[in-house]
Amino acid sequence: MILPIYTYGQAVLREETKPIDSSYPELQQLIADMFETMYNADGIGLAAPQIGRSIKLLVIDGTPLVNDHLDCKDFKRVLINPEIVEESPERVTYEEGCLSFPGVHERVTRAERIRVKYLNERFEPVEEALGGFAARIVEHECEHLAGELFIDNISPIRRQLNKAKLNNIIKGKASCRYRIKPANKK
């Protein structure tokens, strides 16, 4: 089922999320719904807060980017209770967008390489070293689980330049082709 994506201004996007275990109700269906929602919006990552759930769960499929980012080949994952345990000191700046911020794209600096620990959809522990754009996707989505947003990583001047777009997103006046749940539809 395609779920509405919560947009900037929704309180759930700023909440600290809770870990889950295998007893979480209808988890496999939720994972399937998150992938379907993400694909419908042409996304490459989706965190549970973006569908209104304050839990540590995210889905990723970077394979559509493989032509430009070889590290995204076969990069489809479910990450439950992920934790970035190591970041390289080298930083890379690249333009990002976010399904919760339709029409907003900004350059964000992130670690070039990371090591992440998580449980997969079968609740098996995984520890994985990632680099390049795959690392960026995981970093971006893990921020959602900490109540942080990609615009927190841009300068105050860039935020000010995006103020009208951000206000329109809050008001439900953002233009996008997927279902959204804005904070204040007016």
- In percent, how much strand structure appears in the residues? 25-35%
Order of helices and strands: EHEEEEEEEHHHE
Low-confidence stretches: none
Determine Rg (CA atoms, Å).
16 Å
- Strand adjacency order, main sheet: 2-3-4-7-8
CATH architecture: Alpha-Beta Complex
- How many structural domains does the protein architecture include? 1
The level of helicity is 10-25%
Counted by DSSP, the helix tally is 4
**What is the class in the CATH system?**
Alpha Beta
Mean pLDDT: 95
Alpha-carbon distance between the termini?
26 Å
Main sheet makeup: 5 strands, antiparallel
Strand tally: 9
Structural shape: globular
CATH level 4 superfamily: Peptide deformylase
| Helix and strand composition category | alpha+beta
CATH topology: Peptide Deformylase
Question: What is this structure's SSE topology?
Answer:
Blueprint: E1 5-6, H1 27-40, E2 45-47, E3 57-61, E4 76-87, E5 91-97, E6 105-111, E7 113-119, E8 125-131, H2 132-145, H3 156-161, H4 163-170, E9 180-181
Parallel strand pairs: 1-9
Antiparallel strand pairs: 2-3, 3-4, 4-7, 5-6, 7-8
What's the short version?
This protein is about 25% helix and about 30% strand. It is of the alpha+beta class. Keywords: Hydrolase, Iron, Metal-binding, Protein biosynthesis.
Description:
- The structure is a single chain.
- The longest helix is centred in the first third of the chain and has 14 residues, at 27-40.
- The relative contact order is 0.21.
- The model has no long low-confidence stretch (mean pLDDT 95).
- It contains four helices and nine strands, in the order βαβββββββαααβ.
- The two termini are 26 Å apart.
- It is α+β, with helices and mostly antiparallel strands and 186 residues long.
